[in-house]
Amino acid sequence: MMRTMIFTLLALVGFMSLAVADQDKTDPKAKEAKIIKVDPKAKTATVKLKAADKDVEKTIKLAEEIEYLDNTGKVANIDIFTAGDMVFLVESDGQITKLKKNDKEAKISKIDTKKHTATVKMKAEGKDVEKTFKLAEDIEYMDSTGKVANAEIFTSGDNVMIVECENEITKMKRCDKSPTATPPKGN
């Protein structure tokens, strides 16, 4: 009996640790979700999130005083959120009060478009790790300016922002370092 209680307690603690690892570090009430659609005119967002261990699609009203944040926690606007984005959201009284992007910074170790995989170095749970992801069939590639691109612009060593959902990369954006200033030429 005591042994069963201990195992149950350990399992519960392990489950709670995993749940906390998936939450937004800036808000313990945040839930991870995938944006299906954002409708600024109707002030709603349709998202897919986990509820009772299954994926549920839900349309939720955006609060009047909603807080929009990019993945670094800087204030943003609704325009940065698009279908396929992974986000953290905080819901209160049936409305979203906070919406934060959940893209991840990474460095490409290897990209193989024939095998549809990318291996990247990134931070996960506070540690530097190397992970291999499947590239989604309908992946969106973007250059550093946000223009549509193709996989050929990405090479080993590139810094990128990725959106990962269920071990697949659904979006990849190149993050070039800011250009160095060129001194003016003298006469």
Q: Please, could you describe this protein's structure?
A:
- The chain is mainly beta and 187 residues long.
- The chain has 1 helix and 10 strands; from the N terminus they run αββββββββββ.
- The protein has one helix at 2-21; strands at 31-39, 44-51, 54-69, 86-92, 95-101, 104-112, 117-124, 127-142, 159-165, 168-174.
- The strands form 2 sheets. The protein has a 5-stranded mixed β-barrel.
- Strand 7 (117-124) and strand 8 form a beta hairpin.
- Mean pLDDT is 81; it is low at 1-22 and 178-187.
Which secondary structure elements does this structure contain, and how are they paired or packed?
Elements: H1 2-21, E1 31-39, E2 44-51, E3 54-69, E4 86-92, E5 95-101, E6 104-112, E7 117-124, E8 127-142, E9 159-165, E10 168-174
Parallel strand pairs: 3-5, 8-10
Antiparallel strand pairs: 1-2, 1-4, 2-3, 4-5, 6-7, 6-9, 7-8, 9-10
